[in-house]
Write a structure and sequence with these properties.
The protein is of the alpha+beta class. The chain is 40% helix and 13% strand. The structure holds adenosine monophosphate and magnesium ion.
Length: 531
C-alpha cells in the first residue's frame, strides 16, 4: 500500500528552490526553499496515529485505522528514514518578527516538507517536525523531543475537534535517538527521547514568508509567492479579481480569517504562547504548537511561556491585539504589490470590527442567548469581572452555565450548579461578598435566559462550551507515561479530545480543574520554548 502512495511536489515545482544543497547555516536568497534530506533514525517506532487525519489523506484502512504489519513502513516514512520514489523533501525559507523585533531569515529549522498527497481532489502537504538539520537550523539541531511532540500531536487534533482551524497531526514516531535539551536554559542539559510528528495542512506558508522577500526588496519573489498562494489556496479570489485589487482582497481575506481564528482561541481559553509572525499561517490556521496552554483559572495576563513571563506580550488578553499587529506586519510586507498605503490601512482597520463581531456571536452562543440586548452589556461586564476575582476554571465555568434553569431561584451557593462549584479552585475560601455577587449574577442570568427552552438552550451552549480541552497537566500525565514507554495515555486522551463537547462515560478525570500538584510543575503550568 505504501509503495503505491503518490506524492506530488506542488510547492517545490511551483516555486524556485535554492540551488545549493549545503546544509550548514546560511542566508538563502531568491529561493522559497532548500532541498534537504531528512536524517535516518536508529529505530523508528510509530507510537501514535490520528485515524481522522489519515482518513483526510486516504491513508490506512477504512476509518483511517492502521494495521500492525504496516506500522514499520509508516514509521520509516513518517520519521524521514525512508523516502518514496519521486519525493523531494525541502525546508522552507521565511523570516519573521519575534517578540516585536524583526529577526531576519528564520526558515524551517526543524521541519521538513515531504510534498503533497492528493485525496478527493485536495492536495494535502505533509511535513515532518524534528527530522534533522536544514540550512535554517541556525545553531540548533533540527530535532524534537518526545514531550513537545506529544503536545503538538494532541493539541493539533484537539483544536480540530473543537472546530478551530489548525494544522493537523497524522503521526508520532519515536526515533530511538536521544536528544539533549536544557529544558529551563539553566545549565542542566539532559538526554530525552527524540520524536518526529508528521503535520498536515494545505500549506505551511507563514506571514513571515512574505515579510522575508519584502524586507530584502525582492518584489519579484514576493509577487510569485502571493500569486502561488492565491492560485492554490484562495482560488475564488484568483477567479474574481486581478492585479493590485486581487492582492488587496487577499490581504482582506487573511485579516478576516485571522480575526475569526483568534476569536475562537479566546472563546476556549487557548493561549498560543509564541505569536511571532513566523508562527502565523497565511491560511488563518493555528500553527506551531510550542509552549501553548489553556487558561485554567481565568486570568487575563496568563501566559504559559516562561520566555515571555516578563513582558507577557503573548498573554491571553493580548492575543487579539497581537493578531492585528502581526497583520500590520503582513500588510507592510505586501505594500509593494498593493501600492496604496491608505487602502491597506483601511483593510487592516476592518480587523477590529471583524474580531468584535466574531466575539459577540461567540459570546451569544456561549451564554445561550438568542441575540444581544442592550442590558446584556452590564451582565457580561459583571461576569468577566467576577471571573477574575478568584481562581475560576474557565472551561468548567462556561460548561456549567447550561445547567441553570430559566427563572430558577438562586439564593445561595448551594443552588449554584454543581459543575460551577467545581470550577472554583478554592470554593471554601470564597469571601461572602464574592459569593453574594455570584449568586446575584446567576439570579439575573436565570431571568435573562427565559427565551429558549432549557433543553434547546443547553444544546446550543454545550455545542460551544467544551467539557474537555487539552489541559497542560493532562498532556503532561500522558507525556510522563509515554516517557516510560506507555502510549495508552496519549491514545486515550486523544480519544477524549475527539468529542470535546460531549460528556463521556467514565471520563470525569479529564474534566477536572488542575490539581494542586500541577500548579507549579514544569509542563503543567509553564513551559519554555526548549523542545
Ligand atoms: P519556533 O519558536 O519554534 O517557532 O522557532 C523559531 C525558529 O527556530 C524557526 O525557524 C524554527 O525552525 C527554529 N527552531 C526551533 N527549534 C529548533 C531546533 N531544535 N532545531 C533547529 N531549528 C529550530
Ligand atoms: Mg515556528
Amino acid at each position: 500500500m505504501l509503495n503505491s502512495l503518490k506524492f506530488t511536489n506542488n510547492f517545490v515545482n511551483g516555486l524556485a528552490g535554492d540551488p545549493s544543497l549545503e546544509v550548514k547555516p546560511r542566508q538563502v536568497y531568491e529561493a522559497f526553499y532548500s532541498r534537504v534530506s531528512p536524517r535516518v533514525c536508529t529505530s523508528p517506532q510509530l507510537v501514535a496515529w490520528s485515524s481522522e487525519t489519515a482518513k483526510l489523506l486516504g491513508l490506512g484502512e477504512q476509518g483511517g485505522a492502521i494495521h500492525e504489519p504496516e506500522k514499520k513502513d509508516y514509521a520509516n516514512l513518517l520519521s524521514g528514514s525512508a523516502l518514496l520514489s519521486g519525493m523531494r523533501p525541502f525546508a522552507m525559507c521565511y523570516g519573521g518578527h519575534q517578540f516585536g523585533q524583526w529577526a531576519g531569515q528564520l526558515g524551517d529549522g526543524r521541519a521538513i516538507g515531504l510534498g503533497e498527497i492528493n485525496n478527493a481532489n485536495q492536495p494535502w502537504a505533509l511535513q515532518l517536525k524534528g527530522a534533522g538539520l536544514t540550512p535554517y537550523s541556525r545553531t540548533a539541531d533540527g530535532l524534537a523531543v518526545l514531550r513537545s511532540s506529544v503536545r503538538e500531536f494532541l493539541c493539533s487534533e484537539a483544536m480540530h475537534h473543537l472546530g478551530i482551524p489548525t494544522t493537523r497531526a497524522l503521526s508520532l514516531v519515536l526515533t530511538g535517538d536521544p536528544v539533549v535539551r536544557d529544558m529551563f536554559y539553566d545549565g542542566h542539559p539532559k538526554a530525552e527521547p527524540g520524536a518526529v510528528v508528521c503535520r498536515v495542512s494545505k500549506a505551511f506558508i507563514r506571514f513571515g514568508s512574505f515579510e522575508l522577500f519584502s524586507s530584502r526588496g525582492d518584489e519579484v519573489r514576493l509577487k510569485e509567492l502571493v500569486e502561488f498562494t492565491i492560485q492554490n489556496f484562495y482560488p475564488k479570489l484568483d477567479a474574481n479579481y486581478v492585479g493590485t485589487d486581487k492582492y488587496l482582497q487577499f490581504y482582506i481575506e487573511v485579516v478576516k480569517r485571522t480575526a475569526a481564528l483568534i476569536a475562537t482561541w479566546q472563546g476556549v481559553g487557548f493561549v498560543h504562547g509564541v505569536m511571532n509572525t513566523d508562527n502565523m499561517s497565511i491560511l488563518g490556521e493555528t500553527i506551531d504548537y510550542g509552549p501553548y496552554g489553556w487558561l485554567e483559572p481565568y486570568e487575563l495576563a496568563w501566559t504559559p511561556n516562561t520566555t515571555d513571563a516578563e513582558g507577557r506580550r503573548y498573554a491571553y488578553a493580548n492575543q487579539p491585539a497581537i493578531g492585528m499587529w502581526n497583520l500590520s506586519r503582513l500588510g507592510t510586507a505586501l505594500l509593494p504589490l498593493i501600492e496604496d498605503k491608505s487602502v491597506l490601512q483601511s483593510a487592516l482597520d476592518t480587523y477590529k470590527d471583524e474580531y468584535s463581531e466574531r466575539w459577540r456571536v461567540l459570546l451569544v452562543a456561549k451564554l445561550g442567548f438568542v441575540e444581544f440586548q442592550d442590558t446584556d452589556e452590564a451582565l457580561i461586564d459583571e461576569l468577566f469581572e467576577l471571573l477574575q476575582l478568584e481562581e475560576t476554571d474557565m472551561t468548567l465555568f462556561f460548561r456549567s452555565l447550561s445547567g441553570i434553569k430559566s427563572k430558577q431561584k438562586i439564593l445561595s451557593m448551594e443552588q449554584w450548579p454543581e459543575l460551577m462549584q467545581a470550577a472554583f479552585y478554592q470554593l471554601e475560601k470564597l469571601e461572602s461578598n464574592v459569593v453574594q455577587r455570584w449568586t446575584r449574577w446567576l439570579q439575573s442570568y436565570a431571568v435573562r435566559v427565559s427565551k429558549l427552552s432549557d433543553k434547546a438552550r443547553a444544546e446550543q451552549m454545550d455545542a460551544v462550551n467544551p467539557l474537555y480541552v487539552c489541559r497542560n497537566y493532562l498532556a503532561q500525565k500522558a507525556i510522563d507515561s509515554a516517557e516510560q514507554g506507555d502510549f495508552t495515555g496519549v491514545e486515550t486522551f486523544l480519544d477524549v479530545l475527539k468529542r470535546p463537547y460531549t460528556e463521556q462515560k467514565n471520563r470525569q478525570a479529564y474534566a477536572e480543574r488542575r490539581p494542586e500538584w500541577a500548579r507549579s510543575r514544569a509542563g503543567c503550568s509553564m513551559l519554555s520554548c526548549s523542545s
